[in-house]
Amino acid sequence: MKLVVGITGASGSIYALRLIEVLRQAGHEVHAVVTDSGWQVLDYECGVSREALAKRVAVLYDNDNVGAAIASGSFRADAMVVLPCSMKTAASIAHSMSDNLLTRAADVMLKEGRKLILVPRETPMHAIHLENLLKLAQLGVRIMPAAPGFYHRPQTIEDLVDMLVGKICDQLGIDTDLFARWEG
């Protein structure tokens, strides 16, 4: 599969890095775009630079380059995951405000009828946040809050991260064994 991963300035960059790692290990082609605030959070939370992320993906795009390949419907991406997704980015996508590459790529996924998954990591949410997420869900966007479960009895932060990444992979149709599934 050819997948786009968008990283915004919401806390939770660790999820994006792990998703990219899992997708690459499974042989998928990963394209990435990061907002300015996304870079700040990646550095602060994970110590990851542009150069380091560029080594982890097939292509790393400049968010200011709205003429990049992923900005076009002719770029045949199978799906896009925005992880973590800030409320600003969710609002921009919900209102088709394609003022940067990440939001334009998400808009293209919507207009082409391709899978788009947003992973908001915000709490609490107010009514406008919820309205924007509802609008997106009504358009077919998968909304997956960064809220891992605990039934698999996680022992580490990595266990929590893997559960959420595993659930995202489920939505992409990618089999993983990242967490123990509930069996009753």
CATH fold description: Rossmann fold
Annotated CATH architecture: 3-Layer(aba) Sandwich
* Cα-atom radius of gyration: 15 Å
Going by helix content, strand content and strand pairing, the class is alpha/beta
Could you state the CATH homologous superfamily? Flavin prenyltransferase-like
First-residue to last-residue Cα separation: 32 Å
Family: Belongs to the UbiX/PAD1 family.
Keywords: Flavoprotein, FMN, Prenyltransferase, Transferase
Binding site for dimethylallyl phosphate: 151, 167
Enzyme class: transferase
Quick take:
This protein is α/β, with parallel strands linked by helices and 184 residues long. 41% of the residues lie in helices and 17% in strands.
Layout of helices and strands:
Elements (H helix, E strand, L loop, with lengths): L1 E6 L5 H13 L3 E6 L1 H11 L3 H5 L4 E4 L16 E7 L1 H8 L6 H11 L3 E6 L6 H12 L3 E2 L13 H16 L12
Mind explaining what this structure looks like?
The chain is of the alpha/beta class and 184 residues long. It has a single domain (2-172), classed as Flavin prenyltransferase-like (Rossmann fold, 3-Layer(aba) Sandwich), CATH 3.40.50. Helices cover 41% and strands 17% of the residues. It contains 7 helices and 6 strands; from the N terminus they run βαβααββααβαβα. Strand 5 (115-120), helix 6 (127-138) and strand 6 form a beta-alpha-beta unit. Helix 1 (13-25) packs across helix 7 (157-172) and helix 4 (87-94) crosses helix 6.
